[in-house]
Amino acid sequence: MREELRRLSDLWSVAPPGATAWLLELCGDGVTGFMPPAMPDSAWVLNAMYEREHAPGIALDIGGTAPGGGLGRAENPGPGWRRLRWAELARRTGNPVVPEGLLPCYRCLTFPPTEGSRLPDIALPTEGSLDRETWNRLIGILTECSPAGPDTPCMAYYSPLLLGVADFDNLLVRSGRLGDAEVLYDHPGVDLSPSNLWAEDRSWILCTDYDLWATKVAGHPDLVDALLNDTEIEALRLPWAP
Fold first, then answer.
1. Hey, what long-range contacts does 110-113 have (CB within 8 A, 24 or more apart)?
2. d(CA 164, CA 32)
3. What element of type H or E holds 198?
């Protein structure tokens, strides 16, 4: 862990105090993450879930032990699992991907009924953190849509809830290059991806709220269109949460 922290510190130095002042003014309290408005546009990137390939369509027992889901980082469970998109599950049940008025969370997904006692066959999305594959692809899209590319100066904020501390006066913000953002996912002592990541020029910002199953990305329309049209990321607009 010490070596990982040294590498992180070499690439992402601790930012000076006051780095989140503009977010406090724009978004208010950032205890679970600073949730930005559209700037001028926004989209929600949904955390990935996976389904066992041998038994498609079998619903998850929420009390089960399928990989994924729960609070913390996660990644593709590996062989025998396939990506299950929120839209595909919604088509099976006849429900909206995200019901009107809700944000992407545990209250959104419904499953067909099961018969008898079955092992979990769907790995739920992570809560409070992007999964590794979605994080890496999102960083790639942000890099493609930023004029300075990987050299874009960025700031990353970690909520005190992620750090297991109660110090809300001295917030942890790190400063570095967008091209080095993948290492933020494995911050030693933190089990979730950053609460916020933003370009230093404030042209875009993402927020992964501690209680949600998705990340809001606010920025220019070209960035939002890239997210909505990407074949790897699953993203959508929520008119009631722009």
1. 111/59, 111/60, 112/57, 112/59, 113/59
2. 12
3. strand 196-199
Q: Return the structure tokens found at 85.
A: 């998109």
* Nearest residue to 179 (alpha-carbon basis) of 214, 147, 154: 154
Task: Locate 162 and state its tokens.
Answer: 């992620």
How buried is 76 (Cβ within 10 angstroms: 0-12 exposed, 13-18 middle, 19+ buried)? middle
Asked if 156 contacts 181 with a C-beta cutoff of 8 angstroms, the reply is yes
3-state SS assignment for residue 175: strand
Specify whether the CB–CB gap between 118 and 58 falls below 8 A.
Answer: yes
Q: How far is CA 85 from CA 20, 50, 51, 73, 199, in A?
A: 34, 8, 9, 18, 29
Tell me how far apart the terminal alpha carbons of the chain are, to the nearest angstrom: 39
Q: What is the pLDDT of residues 187-219, one digit of tens each?
A: 887 888 999 999 999 999 999 999 999 999 999
pLDDT per position as a tens digit, 122-172: 888 999 999 999 999 999 999 999 999 999 999 999 988 777 766 667 788
